[in-house]
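Internal QA ticket QA-208
Title: Verify multi-chain structure generation after dependency bump
Assignee: T.L.

Test input:
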Amino acid sequence: MNIKVTVVGATGVVGSKMLSVLEERNFPASEVKALASIKSVGKKILFKGKEIVVELARPEAFDGVNIALFSAGGDLSRELAPEAAKRGCVVIDNSSAWRMDPDVPLVVPEVNEDDIFKNNGIIANPNCSTAQLVLVLWPLHKEYGLKRVVVSTYQAVSGAGKKGIDDLNNQVNAIVNGKHIICEKFPYQIAFNCIPHIDVFKENGYTKEEIKVVEESRKIMHIDDLAITCTAVRVPVLNSHSESVNIEFEKDFDIKEVKELLSKSPGVLLYDDPEKNIYPMPILTANKNETFVGRIRRDFSVKFGLNLWVVSDNLRKGAALNAVQIAESLINKQ
Amino acid sequence: MNIKVTVVGATGVVGSKMLSVLEERNFPASEVKALASIKSVGKKILFKGKEIVVELARPEAFDGVNIALFSAGGDLSRELAPEAAKRGCVVIDNSSAWRMDPDVPLVVPEVNEDDIFKNNGIIANPNCSTAQLVLVLWPLHKEYGLKRVVVSTYQAVSGAGKKGIDDLNNQVNAIVNGKHIICEKFPYQIAFNCIPHIDVFKENGYTKEEIKVVEESRKIMHIDDLAITCTAVRVPVLNSHSESVNIEFEKDFDIKEVKELLSKSPGVLLYDDPEKNIYPMPILTANKNETFVGRIRRDFSVKFGLNLWVVSDNLRKGAALNAVQIAESLINKQ
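Actual output:
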């Protein structure tokens, strides 16, 4: 095999995680390039013990490249992804730019791997909160039928990139040392706070983050009319998103069967033994590939209701890992 | 008036807040005593510029006392509240010991003030997460009828008392200074984490905290069969609980009317203008008497659905303020 891969936005939080994931999974690339915007050009990145020099992300940089993993923001994706595709490169894009485009598959491989092969040169990686959610919803849907889903998120600052991580670290340091707090990324102090505002507000009162969870879940699972609502909240956690998920099913279920089903679902780790204080938490899931699910219990407020708690490393399944999995499918199943 | 008041557990986080609230609201007491367990006896507390010496909480300490505000844990309440009541004192108890006792009214004055006067010497103060929730649910229920409620909480460490506050502060300090983390109160590190475990687990997979929200909401609002479910989560916030609340109504509603209704509801502060980044957050509500509500928007996943976000100082409306409000009703309306 002679597969040339490039990572666009290679110096960002997700971009560098993409490189680590490619390395640790021993992705069969004959060459790995790192691209970024002008301000990072010339930086050196260590990959498999060798230095890669960051080059400028521009159309010609995709000549001869087979797969490009993009994580450089929506604007650059809108501009460069079509240029890369035109040159025969398959783009796997982590921004929100292409996700809802009807010509672009939006993929979580454990859910809709087949969609990968319907691509026209661009494949979209879902929003971080959506990826971990559908991973758990999909096996349950196939068995019991989703009737309605209510999600409340507890999202880590790493979802907002390096500046998000810096804000929390700097603010906590400032508070501990009695200094003045500065907010660079978030609209308010995130240290010791919860901010119910991720991405921009739309006219209907929802944030774009909340709308992404709704629309992307429908698209990935191919349930166009899925009844689902979301409240997305930023919490003072460095990494890993948590979700409180309430599900109403079409059919009745047995709690033991639900647990068994999830324990066998790809990408999911059943982590559920309250008696032993075993339940998913952000401090457990950081740098793990699995999406942890626990606190599984019947919701007695509705006919076939279930509550559960899902935690996953948002930089991995929510971003870099999922993108690399798509690339692996492309290679292995084409 | 010649009203003698005593605070039991006066040196605790809630007990000392009870004293502050009595003082700032200029509660018409002719005498205020402070009681506590043996280890705090002799400590001095400043109240209205005068020193009160903490005395031992024992049956005889309630002789001649008219109103006792208890916040000293369930065991002491179970033991001493009946002794106080026997002596003609009305107990307002903040523990969970008496809340679900059919002979004990459980009261949030804005919701069920009349129940106060059905007491047999003991009145229960609700769980912190419940108080702020019913304050918002009640006016909506009267207008549109609650059909089903799904709550996910984001609870501050102050709800676990001084040791909870210490855990978060000590852990954050340890992390900033590169030292080893110690967990004294919580089962795991709470700094930079979310723990979906508050109070003990019951056989059905719910925590007692979650069951309290369900049962106490029903009792306070007198809706015995209210369909309500809860996931309770501890977050690294020092003070003020947040709640993501999803409501299904019996009747249709207009969003503008909902906001108007809540803006006029006692104890509630409508804080909802997403365009201007105005929404409730813990850093805003600490030491405020009002329960803040915002992020009010239609939930399109169900016929008459609504999402909202409620934040309140759990030591005030969730504990000390509500108890003092009950005492004020006792005096003013008897």
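Spot checks passed. The longest helix of chain B spans residues 316-333.
Status: verified.
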